[in-house]
Amino acid sequence: MLEVRGLNSWYGESHILHGVDFDVQEGEVVTLLGRNGAGKTTTMKSIMGLVPRRQGSIRFKGQETLSLRPDEIARTGIAFCPEERGIFASLNVTENLMLPRTVAPGGLDLPTIYTLFPNLKERASSQGTKLSGGEQQMLAIARILRTGAKLLLLDEPTEGLAPVIVQQIGRTIREIKQRGFTVLLVEQNFRFAATVADRHYVVEHGRVIDMIPNAQLEASMGKLHGYLGV
Ligand code: ATP
């Protein structure tokens, strides 16, 4: 579904990605693991066209997207949920959910969203500012499910959340996968990653240096600790 080949990206004069290669198959949940500053977020932003200078190839469902604008990329069916979540503080949950523009058929309607996220249903009329970090994260994921995008890029959805909320996010991601969505996930927490993902790519210094199938993650812990410096 997504093929990234030889991706190079720059912020101004800073050369951040040095030939990133990886694939995501339709229906998979795949993580990008790596230390702070390895280039995981830059990879996601590059896929969304949000990094001004890029080279290489990014094909989504066979279509080259490298030269497309971010809004054109969104309309191919890719959605990005940034680490900062981007909830509108002055709007309530339902209003936040009504905002996104449909980019493709198959976006989830409000009743389906509220079935998937019962916590959000309870908080439907609460303002963005009143939501907990976990609720904001759920809302950010729910919002991109409204758009009809089929490939969801989630940047550290568990960052700063309590373990019980992390488990909820895990359940949500597994359910999204069951519904046929494809997920690319940036994670620092590989114990969490193991509960949701089919495969893991390790990013280091702007390159993908390894791919670990989830079934081999446990056996690869020593190697992973080395990569991630934990
Ligand atoms: P983190 O978990 O810290 O976000 P990451 O692997 O996602 O790690 P990136 O955010 O992709 O890393 O950052 C990769 C490198 O690019 C870092 O050295 C960072 O300082 C640099 N960088 C990120 N954003 C910018 C920017 N807007 N301008 C210049 N340099 C940037």
From TrEMBL:
UniProt keyword ATP-binding, yes or no: yes
Keywords, alphabetical: Amino-acid transport, ATP-binding, Nucleotide-binding, Transport
Domain of life (superkingdom): Bacteria
Domain ABC transporter: 2-230
Gene Ontology MF, one: ATP hydrolysis activity
Protein's GO biological process: L-amino acid transport
UniProt family annotation: Belongs to the ABC transporter superfamily.
Protein name: ABC transporter ATP-binding protein
Organism: Limobrevibacterium gyesilva
